[in-house]
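Schema walk-through. Below, the input block comes first and the output block second. Nothing else is stored per chain. Lengths vary across the set, and this one has 468 residues.
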Amino acid sequence: MSFWHIDDVIGNSAVIEQAESQAWSYADLSRSSSDLKRQLSFQIKSLGFVFCRNTFGALVGYLAGLQSGHTITLLDASMHDRLREQLIKEYRPEWLWLPKDSSLPAHYRIQGDAFGYMLMLRNESSRPEAPEIHPDLALLLSTSGTTGSPKMVRLSYHNLQANTESIATYLEIASSERPITTLPMQYSYGLSVINSHLLHHATLLMTEANLVSKSFWDFFREHGATSLAGVPYVYQMLHRLNFERMCKSLPTLRTMTQAGGRLDEKLQHYFADIAYANQLRFFTMYGQTEATARISYVPYDKIKEGIGSIGIPIPGGTLEIDKESGELVYSGPNVMMGYASNRADLAKEDELKGRLLTGDIARKGENGFYYIVGRKKRFIKVLGLRINLDEVERLAEQTNGEACYCMGDDTNLVIVIRNETSRQKIKTMLTEVYHLHPSVFRIAVLEDIPRLTTGKVDYHALYERVRE
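--- output ---
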C-alpha cells in the first residue's frame, strides 16, 4: 500500500501541530485529503504547486495531489513573489495550494480554503495550451535546496514509494515513532522523514519553531518526540547547545539521523559518543534529491567504524565506482526520471533508467564502506595545480578545529573562517601542504555564514560576500 493512501488507523494521531495546538487522527487526514482531492477534478493530468510550511494544511495539499494522480511541485511558502511568478510562468500550473496570508498571484481565482490554505485554480481564459504530463510523473522537487531556479528533479510514484520503503526498513520505523520536524517539507530529506513515518502510521510532530528556541524543546518534551533529523548545521547547533547535557532531559529520544552534507569528523565522534552513552541510535546518511532522498547509510551499531564514510547502499540499491573517473555511481528504483526546466519537460520519459552518476568522487574502504573524497565540479586549477576544494575544507577543518568553507576559481582560492585566531594556522597549512604562494589564496573571516532554507551553506551568497 502506498504511503499517500491514508488508512483510517485507530489509535495513533497522524499529526500533532504546534502552531494550532491541535492533533489530527489518520481519519482526519484521510477525510481532509479526500475532500481536497475531489476539488482537483481536471479532465487530464494537471500540475499543481504546493507552497510548504511544516503544518497540517501543507501535508493535506501534498497528499491530495498524490492521491488525485496529478503532478505536484513542493515549494517554499516564504518564496519571494518574483521568484514564484517566474516559476509559474515556466511551468504554468493549473492549480495552487497556497497559505491564506500569501499575496494573490495573477490569473488565478480562489476555489476554496481549509487549514490555513487556499486552493486557487487558473482562470480558464488565461489557461495556456500545455503539453501532456507523463503518466508516471508524481513530484517535482528543487535541486539542492534552491528556491528560485526552474531546474527541478522529476520523481515518479515508484521512486517515492521505493525510497520510502527502503528508509523505513533500515531505520526500523514503527507506529510508535514520533519524529519532530526540523527540516523544510519541500526539501527531499525533510519530506523523506514525513513519507517514511506515514507509511507505518506513526505520529508527525509538526513545528516551525527554531531548533534553538525554548518552544521547540517544550513541544519536543510535551509530546514525547522519539527522533531528530538534521543537516550538519542542525548538529552544529546541537553541539553549541551542549547536547550531551540536554539529552539527559529528553527521555523519549531514541534516534538521530544526519544527512544533507558531510558532518565534520569531530562532531561525528561527539554524537557517536553521546549515542553510545545514552543508548541512542545515530545514523549518518548520504543522499541526493536525484535519488528521491537516500542513497546510503552507516548502520548505527557501526557508527564509530564508519566515521568519515557514507556507509553502505540502502536496501534495494547498489553502489559502484567508475574505474576511469572515480565517480560514484548509484543504481536503484529511487533514481529520478531526469530533470525539468519548464512545462514541456514534464512529458519526457524516464531518461536515467535507474542509474545515477552522483558527481562525487569516491573510494571503497576495506570495511566495505564508501568514502567521498571530492566533487567532480569542486575542483579549481591554481598555478597548474589541480585543487580539490572539498579536500582543502577537510584539511582546514582538521587544522582549525571547526568548519571552514572553500571557494574560488583558477586564479584565486578563498577560504572562509569564523575566527581570526585561525588565520595563521590555515595559512601555514596551505603553504606547507599545497605549496601555495600567499598571492594565490585569501583567507576571509565571516561570523555569519549564509545558508539556504535547508540549512546547507549557500556558497554562491558566501562567495558574493567575501569577493573582493
